[in-house]
Write a structure and sequence with these properties.
4 copies of one chain form a homotetramer. Chain A is α/β, with parallel strands linked by helices. The first copy, chain A, folds into 2 domains: about 5-150 and about 335-350, 3-Layer(aba) Sandwich (Rossmann fold), CATH 3.40.50; about 150-330, Dihydrodipicolinate Reductase, domain 2. Chain A is built from 13 helices and 14 strands.
Chain lengths: ~350, ~350, ~350, ~350
Amino acid sequence: MKRIKVAVMGCTGLVGQQFVKLLDEHPYFELAALTSSSRSAGKGYGRALNWAVGGEIPEAAREMEVSETAVDALLKSQVKVVFSAVPAFLAEKIEHLLRAQGLFIFSNASTHRMDEDVPILIPEINPGHFALVRKQMSRHKGFIVTNSNCSTSGLAMVLAPLEPLGMKSVTVTTFQSISGAGRRGLAAMDIAANAIPFIKNEEEKMEGELQKILGQLDRHKIVSRNLPVNASCCRIPVREGHLLSIVVDFLKEVDVGDVEKALSNFSSVPQALKLPTAPERPVIVRQEEDRPQPVLDVHAGQPERARGMAVTVGRIRKKARSINLFALVHNTVRGAAGTCLLSAELAFQKGLVH
Amino acid sequence: MKRIKVAVMGCTGLVGQQFVKLLDEHPYFELAALTSSSRSAGKGYGRALNWAVGGEIPEAAREMEVSETAVDALLKSQVKVVFSAVPAFLAEKIEHLLRAQGLFIFSNASTHRMDEDVPILIPEINPGHFALVRKQMSRHKGFIVTNSNCSTSGLAMVLAPLEPLGMKSVTVTTFQSISGAGRRGLAAMDIAANAIPFIKNEEEKMEGELQKILGQLDRHKIVSRNLPVNASCCRIPVREGHLLSIVVDFLKEVDVGDVEKALSNFSSVPQALKLPTAPERPVIVRQEEDRPQPVLDVHAGQPERARGMAVTVGRIRKKARSINLFALVHNTVRGAAGTCLLSAELAFQKGLVH
Amino acid sequence: MKRIKVAVMGCTGLVGQQFVKLLDEHPYFELAALTSSSRSAGKGYGRALNWAVGGEIPEAAREMEVSETAVDALLKSQVKVVFSAVPAFLAEKIEHLLRAQGLFIFSNASTHRMDEDVPILIPEINPGHFALVRKQMSRHKGFIVTNSNCSTSGLAMVLAPLEPLGMKSVTVTTFQSISGAGRRGLAAMDIAANAIPFIKNEEEKMEGELQKILGQLDRHKIVSRNLPVNASCCRIPVREGHLLSIVVDFLKEVDVGDVEKALSNFSSVPQALKLPTAPERPVIVRQEEDRPQPVLDVHAGQPERARGMAVTVGRIRKKARSINLFALVHNTVRGAAGTCLLSAELAFQKGLVH
Amino acid sequence: MKRIKVAVMGCTGLVGQQFVKLLDEHPYFELAALTSSSRSAGKGYGRALNWAVGGEIPEAAREMEVSETAVDALLKSQVKVVFSAVPAFLAEKIEHLLRAQGLFIFSNASTHRMDEDVPILIPEINPGHFALVRKQMSRHKGFIVTNSNCSTSGLAMVLAPLEPLGMKSVTVTTFQSISGAGRRGLAAMDIAANAIPFIKNEEEKMEGELQKILGQLDRHKIVSRNLPVNASCCRIPVREGHLLSIVVDFLKEVDVGDVEKALSNFSSVPQALKLPTAPERPVIVRQEEDRPQPVLDVHAGQPERARGMAVTVGRIRKKARSINLFALVHNTVRGAAGTCLLSAELAFQKGLVH
């Protein structure tokens, strides 16, 4: 099987690094280009950054020259697929231009998430939303597919399997790790031994994006889910992994066992297709009284290639018509690079990228 | 004015240390005895511990000899009031014996909180509950007054001022500091750069104690408040201060301004009596978009003697019939030693301890 | 006594905030102007920053308008003394211009430290170096006095009292807190639960500045001390306080008792003059086996106004002709704003600023 | 090749867990027994602990029943080799009894390290010291081999390759992670955002054990090295990895390049024999200006099975006749379980365990 040439755009940040890590010896994709800001351009990748995502820089990437993020450079590299980890303001400038050139963009940027013809794809939840890209391709040569906000991905992975139980509303408080703010996004003096109960636009994203992710595709348009979500977001001094305290109000009484079963049994298209980055069990329910914990559970996910792709749930408790639980999501893997890559793998299997 | 002799029982732990600190040069009370486990007994206080609550050990306490926690030792010291910071199992053995000897116990232990004739006193909220001690004194010579669980105190301080607005139910998620587990209660390896979504019995205490605190006194008995509270508790790597993410559902729509006003204007008996440890404003509402934060706000409270006694509230947001907010309480001051002392000051002013 | 009007230049950073805090109700100086970058200019001080140095913003400063750092603005404010907490590149542009206008600059910037006629003043150590300012004033209208690098100040405070014992060389490894990098100088992802064994130019500063500080004044020139210092600097995830592991090789054998006595008895001009910010004991020797510790000892210093001005030493151990010890210095107080202010107080007492 | 049955004694602590992790699918050894204190005995391994060393509990160990640490239980399990991670007081009671029964003990406990006929083995440094076990076997049926203290192992791995350059003395300051104190050895309140400049007996161990490790075997006895070492030890809030600031005084001047070469080229018996846990390069020299860092470098070591077995060195600087450098060692792998296992692998290859 011939591998498809891909680029990682914005390769020096934490999400960019995760893309490079996850693409190491990937069966479908071959890393052929790395782009970054002018500050890193021209350097070998290994010299352009402090590798901060564990293990060593993949051999194939270490000596690759980083080029400046620009349409020309990407076209010249002859990649077909671009994994985008650039900040939103930059995504706004360049992603649509790349699409116009026939490239397939899988983006972690929030810029196009709410575009009518762009899906926020989480392949276990809404693989059907991929249909939207045909609408894009009818107008442009390529397409853009986005993943959701990092906290939203954890919430969605918990709520989607519970849909059959009939949800009325959701209240969520987040404990978000510092890696969620990016490599240099948070000053040490601000967060050391502290908690900051504010993350710009995060609550709005959680409440808004979820409706689209859980929405139904109706004649090439997504009808929003309209599930009331009340989010409160807080940063804590943890390195990786967003922990969520979730309360789901159900339309009728449900039992802890119902919820456990729905979550544990959750399996979907990526599992059926055995996509390389798909975790065998997308949601893992733990029985210990004090889990999930970021340090212990952030890398959940089997096989090796799917480390960090499973969401861990614990402390499922019933309270009248509500169920309380804690969930943990790896914010730069399942909440960013990993889900983007899983979407690209799904596209590959469907023959949409080639 | 002659000062009353008091003891701090369990003086080496964090709450015991806060008692000693708050009692330094106190206008009503004179520290006359310090007790601890046999391991520290016989030592000078300064040598019995690592002072861990800021500043220096008060001169008056530094050289005082620590005696073993026992009824005899306390009677011999001729104290009238005992501030108890011993663990629950020890409180169960000794507090009722001290009461039988005519001593007035102000206790941070959970042991007697739910006794029918023992109040869980927060002087700003339920000063009238003090009436219960007369019931105790009719049976015993002395009395026991308790303060609430540390997280509960923060929650109660926020909810009490909102009572007039008509609350229907409350959902709360906590971010609790490591000092809440005591000086040696939590292993560093467990919590370093981690979050642990479980604190034994904490959720039950928050949901239960609150009903008694907000209850009405009816013919010498407290009628529970019966406000549905749904609590989820988590430990985070912060040294001092419990942060709460609170959602209050109201019976009818209320505005952010109503809540702000109710909280900012809250003032009660301790403020009217100008008790020494009473903060001028028991609840401080901050307008910044990212407050309260443990490191910045934990010591809130004026004057100097009331540092840590004010609860700080921020990010008040409306969501349909709910109001979201974050609140911060100093867990070993307002949530423990400080409120206990404030109760004793109230008793002193009422002539109940002498 | 009429107070002298002073400005804090660079008032929003951590050192600037410490200046503002230390100047609150100061007996000699009256805060009359605050300057900062254009981003904060025009705002009230309380709105221009997150107060991060403990306690509350002093009333007198809270509503004061911040002006942009510029010669004109400072002249217009009619201050006589400027406390400078601006970064080195900015100090280079403005400090000499202010001096030319007759202002007296006490600066935390490294820019002029090595100028031949500018002292690096630590009033307990080299008060006589103040004579250098007369040389400056013969050429300019005002003068510049600097304080040392933060780690150097801790090292110098330990070594100066040991001079009579005959030192041969010094080896030092530092454990530096994140506040030493400034409010936004260090990314949380870099230092969280980590240690970084590199701080740009720090080792050079420690090795170089010390020679000038311990140097002798000879006919209006400082003759360098020439004591071999070998420094290795490392950042650790502590908020405030630089801990130093120091090994002093002596010319002949000395005993632990000699070192203890020399340090404990150290007292100098600021103590004799009872300068407001002078700690009663500039060096505190602790006998516990595990001190000094940043969290427990960083604020050492009596009276209240001198909190953070005492250096704490512990674990003094002998090893052949070497003495090992650990020392702790509050990097933004004794290592920055506090020593600068102490120098200005000394100048005030000598009639050098008026 | 038939695998040898082994036990891990003290299997629930951090070092015990590392043994279990490293033994997963080991080519020479088969995990056949797990022992712990009575509190865990009788439980399945997976239920007896919080797995805290990364990844998941190996399948083969998860359901294995933990028995109480006792001679009988270990004999019944028919293991030949015991990896001991019990505390020193327990090692003192049981290790010699197991040896008397013909078992081969590879121990992380300090108890027997200084016994005349017990080697402190680091296979890259002193493989020849294995000869001492014959002396033991002449008296007992089995033998005991120890590994060094965790910090010492890092120091020894750096110094051994430098022996040919002629060392005169060594000064070292440590930055030790909290895992070094064991799973529950350090209270969170003591170390959170703090540094503690004292670790009981650590400095003595570093100074003493090193002499034996670097000693020469002379007629079945080890002649101590007698290199002056001056150690100062400090705990910092890092999870894994001990960082060392090392100053080596040489007998004559050496260059940075000499040191770099000696360290980078270091390779020894385990590498030649391709032992499973041997890292290809035992010492890795990094050129970046700010390495090694615990978070980035603690897992250094190739191949996969040797993760954490390489010591990382950086910031090699010359200062007169001294060389300064920073080194990082994984304290529970290279500093404990990993080196123990490497010694057992060496014994296996030599036919000493069978």
